[in-house]
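dumping this here so i dont lose it again. seq + smiles for nicotinamide-adenine-dinucleotide
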Amino acid sequence: MISFLHQVAFVTGAGSGIGRATALAFAGAGARVVVAEINEESGRETVGHIHQSGGDALFVACDVAEPAQINAAIQQTVDTYGRLDIAINNAGIGGRYGRFTEQTPEDFDRIMAVNVGGVFYCMQAQIRQMLLQQKGTKAEGKTAESNPMESFPVGGRIVNVASIAGVRGMPMGAPYSASKHAVIGLTKTAALEYVKQNIRINAVCPAYTNSAMVDGLISAAPAMEDRMRRMIPLGRFGQPEEIAQAILWLCADDNTFFTGQTLQLDGGLTAG
Ligand SMILES: NC(=O)c1ccc[n+]([C@@H]2O[C@H](COP(=O)([O-])OP(=O)(O)OC[C@H]3O[C@@H](n4cnc5c(N)ncnc54)[C@H](O)[C@@H]3O)[C@@H](O)[C@H]2O)c1
């Protein structure tokens, strides 16, 4: 089992679905987890689950569409736990289910602010903190020599939650698909910019996964459910826990050569 003992993991949108499953999985693997959520009730519920199972977690109210709230959330993380090792930028919205011509400027702007701006400003704040920590470790002399697996100083890990809609078109979801393509662009670019600082940055691209988001999509278009399932060669939706396990693997200490990649978790959808 992968261990994250004593490490600090920051997860956005951790009050529900994939974010909650990821927060619980990190806590189960020994990490101290920061639950950054716009919905205080669901965020505190996740923290409650972690405490009940003996883990350590902190709730931080945060709307990822607001850069000032993101900076404050990272600061609160460092004030409480002293550092940031892992960041999972998961918070996202699905937007309006409708044709290209039906999408309004408000639909487009909100989805871009949350799904793209949220990931961009989160990564900015997280990378700044990870770089600061490296200066600290260098000053203490704990550089690559103390870790023979690394050719660079010990850095951080970031995973952005994109989507299969970030690698292919999604009819009736143009702003969503555009936002997830952008997340992949941000992931690859940041991974290249910070490769020498050993901050590994990857994205996961799930296909339909059981969560409030998919429930919302199905209630907007109930006739779609069957077709959505049939699109996936495995014949079922993913489970949030399956996505969480992949995210943990991406963040593992000994997973040292994997960066700038998109990992498709799609029941075979993009294999065809
Ligand atoms: N469920 C799927 O089929 C699927 C597939 C591909 C990608 N994704 C992506 O996975 C991520 C998680 O989605 P989910 O399916 O678990 O949905 P979900 O609706 O269950 O969870 C999303 C969480 O993000 C939070 N959130 C929304 N806006 C926020 C904001 N502005 N600031 C902070 N938190 C905010 C919500 O309160 C909620 O807790 C999203 O980025 C989504 O686009 C989901």
